[in-house]
Structures are given as C-alpha cells and as structure tokens.
Write a structure and sequence with these properties.
heterotrimer; A alpha/beta; B alpha/beta; C mainly alpha; A: 4-stranded mixed beta sheet; 13 strands; 52% helix; B: alpha/beta; 6-stranded mixed beta sheet; 38% helix; globular; binds adenosine-5'-triphosphate; binds magnesium ion
Chain lengths: 463, 250, 253
C-alpha cells in the first residue's frame, strides 16, 4: 500500500513536472514570468502584422504584440500595442524606430524595434515609438529593375559604338543582346578570350580601327560608371530606409560586389596586358587600347560581378535563370557546333581513342584505365602551361550503339575526362567544358567520325 | 405473512417467489420461512435453482413475482442504500467462492472489515486470524486465490462470509470438494455459528450426512418447486419421491 | 440499427452514471490510487518507448523534406508542434486504448464471470463505485500525464536523431522546438486527452461490467473495448480539434 502510493506519487509528480517544464519553455518565449514593459507604434499599413506577432529589439526576440487598435477612418493609423521583456528596456530610446519585418521572403511578419542612439533618453513606458512604413518587396524590385534598365541602355550605347567599327565586328556583335544577363556573357568572353569582345583582342587588324573609337568607348565607359554609380545610390538609398534585415543583406551583397570592382579590374587589366603586350602591330594603339579597354573591363567587370552576385542572390535568381544564362560547364551540343569560337579550326586539338582510355566493367560502366590516365597526362602536357590558364573543352564521342546510347556514352566519357583533368591539374572548373557529340565531330575539323574523346584548347592566337 | 413458528420471529421469508431466465422457468411459487437462529438445509438435484434461491435472498437477482423478507425488510423494493443495510447482515459463500483474485487471502478478508467496520488495524488482524484458524487456513494468509486448492478456496470463501459476523449465513455447498474430516470440521463450524452466535444458517448441500447434523429444517427443490419443507422426519414422510430419496442417508 | 442506437444509449447512460457516482460519497481514494498505478505507471515504459521511437522516425522523415526546402532549422519546431498538437495526444490515446482498454475489459468481464462482482455486492460494497469509477477516474487522470511523457520522449528521440545527423546543441534544439508554440497549443491538446481517458475508461468498463457470457465473454469484452474505444477516440479527436480551434482561433494551423 505504501509502495503503491509512492509509485503513484512519483508518476504524478513526474507528469506535473513535465507539464510545468512545457509551460515554462513556452513561457520563456512569451515572457509571462518576467517583468515587461509596453510601448505603442502606429502604422498605416500592417503588412500582415497580427495580435501575437513577435517583436524583436535589435534582432533579439523580445516579446509580442498584445493588441492592435483598428483606425476608425483611413486618415488615422493602426495603433499597435507592444509588450517586451523589461531587460531590453535600455535599448529602446526616444529615437528608436519601429519597422515591420518579414522572416524570409514569405515568412511571418514581425515588428522590429531598432535600438536608438545612446545620446537619446530611454523611451518611457507607454511611449509611442517612431515608426517607418514598410516598403513592399515588389516596390523594391521595381526600383531595382529601373536601375537595371538604365544600365541596359548604357550597355546598348557601348555596343552601338562597337558595332560602328565595321562589318567584321557587326556579324560578331549580332549575338550580343542588350540584357544584363548578356553583359555577363560578354565579360566571361573577355575573361576567357572568346566572344565578341574576346575577338577584339585576337584580331590584330582591328586594333587600328579600335583606336578611332577609343575616345567614344571612353565616353561609354563613363556612362557605365555612371550606371554603377546609380547602383551604389540605390543601395545607399535602400539602406537609409532601414529596411528589414534580410533585404538589407541582399542589397549589401550587391554593394559588396560593386566595391569588389577594384580587385576584378586589376585582374582583368593583367589579362589584357598579357594579351596586348606582344602585339607588335599596335604598339602605339596598344597603349591606348590597354588603357581604354581596362576601363571598359573595369566597367563591364563591375557589371559582371554585380550581376554575378545578383544571380546568386535568392531574390533575383529566378530572373537570371529565366534569361537562359549559360557557361562552359553547361554546353549544349547544338550551341557548341554552331559557335564560331568553339568551331575555330585553329584551336589546338588532341584526339584520343576510346579503347585507349577506358575499360568497361561488368555493369557496362566505363572508367579510366591506368594507361588511359597516362595518355591524358601526355596529351595535356602537349599543350604546355596553356591548359592552366586557357579554357578547355572536352568533346566526348562514342561510335557504338543507337544515337541514345551514343549520346549517353559520349557524355559520360566527356565528364569522366573533365573530372580527371580538373583534379589532376587543379584546373578552374569554370574554365573546363564538357560536351557530348555522339559520333560526329564539329565541322571544319579533319575527322568526320570519332570514338573516344578530344581535348580542345580555346586558345587566343598569339604570334 | 407470519410464520407458523410464532414463538420466534422468522429471519427469512419467501412468499410466492417465481423466477425465470428468458423463457426458462427456474423457480415457481416458492414459499417458506426460516426462524431466526435456525439452520435450513436446501437439498435438490443439480440445476433446480438452489443457488438462484440464495442469490435472490442476497438480492443479486430480482424475482419476477413474489416477495422476500429478511428480518422484517421486504428486499425486492429496497433501494441501493436499504439493500446495502440488509446485505450487511448477511454473509454469503458463493458456490465457486468468488474470491477477489487480485487480492491476497488476507486482503480478501480485510477489505470488508476496513470498509464496513470501525475496527482498528489490530482488531482486524485479530479477527482475520481467528476466522482463518476456524476454517483451517491460518498459515495461508498471504497466498493469492489462484494458488489455493479448490477446497481451500471454498474454506476461504466461507471465512470471508463469516468475517463480518453475519446474522444470517448463506452457504452454497460449503463442504463440496472436501475430504470427510474437513467436511465434518466445516459442519461443526456451522453448528457453532448457529448455537454460539444465534446465526440463522441457510446451507445448500448435497451431503445428506452433514445436512442432517447441521440442519433443523430441510427444503427439497424439485423441478422448480418446493417439493418438501420441514424437519427431517417430515421430509422423510413426504409424498415426493425425490425428497424421500434425497433425505435418506443410504 | 436499433441495436446500435440502443448500444449508444446504454454506453451514454453508463458514462453518465460514472460521472454522477464519481461525485457521490464515498470516494474510492485507495482504489483510484491503485488504478492510477495500474493505468499510468505501468504504461510508462510503453508510452516512453513508443514516443521515443516515433520521435526518432518522424525526424528522419521530416528531415529529408525540410532539408530539400532549406528549412532544416525548422526540424525541432515541426517535431515539437507535431508531437504536442496531435501525435502525442492521439498516439498515447490509442496505445492506452490497447493496453488499458483491453485490460479493463478483460478484468471486469472475468470478475463478472467468476461472480466476483456479485461477491463485492454481497459485501454491501457498491461494485460500480468500487470497480468502474476508479478505473475511469484513473484513465482521466493518467492520460494527460502519459501524453506529456509521450511528448517529451518524442522530443528527446527527435533530438537524438537530429543530433546524430547535424550535431545540434541540446539548448538550441529545445529553444527552436518551443519557438512557435503557444500555451494554448500545449495545454489544450494535452488536456483533451482527459476526454480520451474518459472514453477508454467508460467504454471498456461498459463491456467488462455488463458482459454476461462467462469465460468466453472475457476475450470478447477485451476486443470490443479496444476496438470501440480506439474508434471513439479518433472521432472525439476530430470534434475536440474543432472545439479547440473554436476556443483558440489564433492557433488554427
Ligand atoms: N444468470 C443466469 N442466467 C440464466 N440462467 C441461469 C442463471 N443462473 C442460473 N441459471 C439457470 O437456472 C437454473 C438453476 O441454476 P442454479 O445455479 O440455481 O442450480 P443449482 O440448483 O444451484 O445446481 P447445482 O447443484 O448444480 O449448483 C440452471 O438451469 C441455470 O442454467
Ligand atoms: Mg448451485
């Protein structure tokens, strides 16, 4: 009997303890067991803020909204009754500002009280805090788009100038469209020595003509710089509005991209110096070109970095994916065959037969053999240091089976070799392309069928 | 109705009691009276309603017709509280003992003492020891009912029926399943109850020898009716053949 | 059909009698203690083990989904909300319907079959108050407590499983677990299991106490107790959830 009472007592006590623990766990968040302090804030637009919404002070969970008084007329505002933990009292000053924030893009709304300045006196309990109306994300994106359009126009101008250089360039530049996404292609092209701007560096005959447009280009550069200045202005504008932290972060990274400009342009300048220095025909022009082009590079590099950063930003990712942005890592066979740069017959090539490289295991999966790796090493060494600095494309071929099998096998071959070279020589993955071409090499090369792989170096012509 | 044995107040009276289960008529117009302090032995063939009669008296079953008096109370129309009072006067040994199988033998006896008396723990322990030694189970206090033999269970059931010192003791086959010596001891116990405590005893039994030593009165049930009622000599002279055969010792 | 309505009627009357008798003296304190020990304490291992296992399994499942959406920090929150709102109460209810419901059904049916209930009556003890009311009361008291054990062991299981995948700190896990919880979605679902307890107690006592089929009635009573109390628990849950939303509209998820 005694024993039973003990058991029941233990059971009930343990249960009640859990209950209390639960209550306190939740209570901690609601601050029900601590002292609190109350303030008010007024908003015309609540953006979904409700009774019970979280309140943060300087990013720390501090309490909740205990009531919202609905205004009788459109001219007055919603009066939000805030209750926060007393311990955060010291952060709330007479110049503290209350804003409405959002957890993530689609998350809950909460009220954010920004800590005031130490000079201001502490806000007295029951005070009405200054509030800033929320800016809708949509508005923000609209503004961003406006700036991007400005930039667009500038780039169009720059392209127009380049187009006027002559028919030779004209055909090359038809591929250049005036979207921000494509600005990026231009820049990647420059970096890898291909594409319209890349061609500039590679065609010595154009250098003299370029000299005539250098001053115009400089004008364009100024425009571009102006555009990036606008981006800067947008960023600081956005920051001055004390927007929710997440969006701040987003735009902060955009700003960061802009301020990284120096490093990028330095690197570009080096590349250009490398490309132009040995160019005997354009000694005088070379100096000009070097300078102006580094300006172009700086401006476009700025754009590229900016757009690159934006591209990786979750807010705008969809926008860029939508534009069909692509790079070396995702080459489509059609695009590859058509593009003059890739099909250039002077690109150095190294053909390697499939049976020389691969062994097939029991499941029909191919892998590189020891001899195969050796053969690839040898082939790569043929190109010398070039493979470390210039873009490579691995073409995969397969002659056996139907076209689907060919396609699958040639792709896997290209990828296997790409992966091997990348790790073997520590190559930059962005400089290394793979493309599956089934059994037929592109036009302009000296083979009509192949089974194996071909390493193509997209090397700028140097004399 | 009043009893013919007018010198003593009847403890139990059955007046035209009938009981049917479904379409099966078990008891038909049973009437008899047992004077206080006497022992009635109920005889009858298996399935003739002897146990049902005791349960009717305990009000565990309600009769279809007729009235039943227990020490002046008509129990068929009592409410729960009144019934509880009447039951408090009676001790009932079930045919299958009906011990509470989640309790030890001791707890089986202690339960009614704790709940229905104001005895102290020591008094309760003493009462239980006394009753158990009377039925010969003094050493088995802490056993669970499942670990008792059939005969031991019967005696334990009898002990539980006795522990509240009932004024009326109802025992459904107290000595069945017991050896001759133990059976004789139980019979002596019943006689002692009757003589020393003036307990009215009603025993259902198939043991004629025991019945004759315990009983003052005999009731013989046959096919649902009371075939004979009276002292042994009267029953022996009964017109009913079953009654004569059941009461004869040989 | 008429039988069904009759059945509902007699169970309801039975339940009503339980409520009325539980308010009448004498209060069977010792019996209630005994039953709380039987229903509550003895069910602890089952409840804790299943809560723990369920918590682990649930985290393993939700983890994959939430990681896909980049919401892995929501794992503790989802786990805690799921357990405190629904899984804890419902699973504890169903487990107890199985363990305790069948027990009550079988024990009472056996007592009926072996005349022990008559035996109690013959001792001037109200067998209904003595046997049924304490069992129902014990279920009503024990179920919310057992639900808490279920909830917290589920949380612990979730934490351990999450700890082995992401080495999350216990403190962080707990603070995230309770970050989206309010009192009403902790207290209301926990207390609603008292209703489940009442259902288990009344339904299984009904089948046990009213059977009259001897030894084979014992098995039947046990089975019916489990089937009907589980069914009623789920039905009652639907209604209770609606009621809770009605009472605390801000917690409707
Ligand atoms: N609760 C019940 N429901 C239906 N029938 C019953 C019930 N109790 C007893 N009976 C029937 O009543 C009849 C009499 O039963 P009872 O137990 O009184 O017999 P008995 O005279 O005591 O026999 P025995 O000497 O074998 O114990 C039996 O046919 C039995 O089937
Ligand atoms: Mg019998």
């Amino acid at each position: 009997m005694k024993n039973r009472n003990l058991i029941v007592g233990l059971f009930v006590l343990a249960g009640l303890t859990l209950f209390t623990v639960g209550l306190f766990m939740i209570g901690n968040r609601h601050e029900a067991f601590s002292r609190h302090i109350e303030y008010y804030a007024e908003f015309t637009d609540l953006s979904g803020l409700t009774k019970g919404s979280k309140v943060q002070v300087a990013g720390m969970d501090a309490g909740q909204i205990i009531d919202i008084a609905i205004p009788p007329t459109p001219s007055s505002k919603f009066r939000v009754h805030i209750r926060i933990n007393d311990t955060l009292h010291g952060l709330v000053r007479t110049d503290s500002v209350a804003t409405i924030g959002t957890e993530g893009v689609v998350g809950n709304t909460f009220l954010l009280i920004h800590p005031g300045s130490p000079q201001a006196s502490a806000a007295s309990p029951g005070a009405t805090l200054t509030s800033k109306e929320p800016t809708e994300l949509a508005d923000l994106l609209d503004q961003g788009k406006g700036v991007l359009t400005d930039v667009d126009v500038t780039v169009k101008n720059a392209n127009g100038l380049l187009t006027s250089v002559g028919g030779n360039l004209n055909s090359t530049l038809t591929g250049v469209r005036s979207t921000v996404g494509n600005v990026n292609d231009v820049v990647v092209g420059i970096k890898e020595g291909r594409g319209p701007a890349g061609m500039l560096l590679r065609d010595p005959e154009l250098t003299t003509q370029i000299r005539h447009v250098v001053s115009n280009t400089e004008q364009a550069t100024a425009n571009l710089n102006h555009a990036s200045g606008q981006v800067d202005a947008l960023v600081s504008n956005i920051q001055s509005r004390q927007l929710p932290q997440k969006i701040d972060d987003t735009l902060g990274s955009a700003k960061n991209a802009v301020s990284n400009l120096d490093a990028t342009s330095l690197q570009l300048r080096q590349t250009i110096a490398e490309a132009t220095a040995p160019d005997v025909q354009g000694v005088t022009a070379g100096a000009n070109i070097r300078e102006s082009l580094s300006n172009v590079n700086a401006a476009t590099g700025n754009m590229a970095d900016g757009s690159e950063a934006l591209k990786h930003n979750f807010l705008l990712r969809g926008f860029f994916l939508h534009r069909g942005y692509y790079n070396l890592a995702h080459l489509s066979p059609d695009q590859y065959r058509k593009d003059r740069l890739f099909a250039n017959p002077t690109n150095p090539r190294e053909w390697l037969a499939g049976d020389q490289l691969f062994a097939v295991d029991a499941n029909g999966i191919e892998s590189l053999t020891v001899q195969g790796k050796k053969a690839l090493d040898d082939a790569a060494m043929q190109f010398g240091d070039a493979i470390l600095s210039t873009p490579l494309v691995i073409e995969g071929y397969s002659g056996s089976g139907d076209s689907a099998e060919q396609s699958a096998r040639s792709e896997s071959r290209a990828l296997i070799v790409r992966a091997y070279l990348e790790s073997r020589f520590h190559l930059n993955a962005g400089n290394l392309g793979a493309v599956s071409l089934r059994s037929s090499p592109p036009p302009n090369v000296d083979r009509s069928r192949w089974d194996g792989i071909c390493i193509v170096v997209l090397k700028p012509a140097r004399k | 109705m009043t009893s013919e044995t007018s010198e003593i107040r009847p403890a139990v009276v059955f007046d035209n009691v009938s009981k049917a289960f479904g379409s099966k008529q078990i008891l038909r117009d049973i009437s008899f009276a047992v004077p206080a302090g006497r022992a009635l032995c109920i005889l009858g063939r298996s399935g003739t309603g002897k146990s049902v009669t005791l349960k009717l008296l305990m009000s565990l079953i309600k009769p279809d017709h007729g009235k039943i008096w227990v020490e002046g109370d008509e129990i068929t129309r009592l409410n729960e509280a009144g019934l509880s009072k009447v039951r408090r006067k009676m001790g009932f040994l079930f045919q299958d003992a009906a011990l509470f199988d989640s309790l030890t033998l001791y707890e089986n006896l202690a339960l009614p003492l704790h709940r229905l008396t104001t005895k102290s723990q020591d008094e309760i322990d003493a009462t239980i020891d006394n009753v158990l030694s009377q039925v010969g189970l003094a050493g088995d206090k802490q056993k669970m009912p499942v670990s008792l033999s059939g005969g031991m269970r019967k005696r334990a059931g009898l002990a539980r029926a006795l522990v509240l010192e009932p004024r009326i003791l109802l025992a459904d086959e107290p000595s069945s399943g017991l050896d001759r010596i133990t059976a004789a001891e139980i019979d002596e116990l019943l006689i002692r109850q009757k003589t020393q405590h003036q307990t009215t005893v009603m025993v259902v039994t198939h043991d004629v020898h025991g019945a004759r030593s315990v009983g003052d009165l005999f009731a013989v049930f046959d096919k649902g009716s009371l075939a004979a009622f009276g002292a042994a000599a009267e029953v022996e002279q009964s017109e009913n053949e079953t009654a004569r055969r059941l009461i004869s010792e040989y | 059909m008429i039988e069904l309505i009759e059945f509902i009627g007699s169970v309801s009357r039975f339940g009503f009698r339980v409520i009325v008798d539980s308010l009448r003296r004498p209060f069977e304190g010792a019996q209630i203690m005994r039953q709380v020990a039987e229903v509550g304490y003895r069910s602890l291992p089952l409840v804790i083990a299943s809560g723990f296992a369920l918590g682990t399994v649930m985290t393993l499942h939700t983890r994959n989904t939430l990681v896909t959406f980049g919401a892995s920090s929501m794992i503790p929150t989802v786990q805690a909300l799921a357990f405190f709102l629904e899984i804890g109460p419902l699973v504890a209810g169903l487990l107890l319907a199985g363990r305790v419901g069948s027990g009550i059904g079988a024990v009472l049916a056996n007592m009926r079959a072996t005349e022990q209930i008559d035996g109690i009556e013959s001792l001037s003890i109200d067998s209904f108050k003595f046997l049924v009311v304490p069992r129902v009361a014990a279920c009503v008291v024990a179920l919310p407590l057992l639900t808490l054990f279920m909830d917290f062991s589920g949380l612990l299981g979730g934490f351990l499983s999450e700890f082995f995948s992401s080495h999350i700190a216990f403190h962080l896990y707990i603070s995230r677990a309770f970050s989206n919880m309010s009192w009403s979605n902790f207290i209301a679902p926990t207390l609603k299991t008292a209703v489940f307890g009442f259902i288990i107690g009344v339904v299984s006592s009904f089948f046990g106490y009213t059977t009259n089929e001897g030894a084979q009635g014992v098995g039947k009573a046990a089975t019916r107790s489990v089937v009907f109390s589980s069914l009623l628990i789920i039905l009652a849950d639907v209604i209770l959830i609606k009621l809770i939303f009605f009472a605390f509209p801000e917690n409707a998820l």
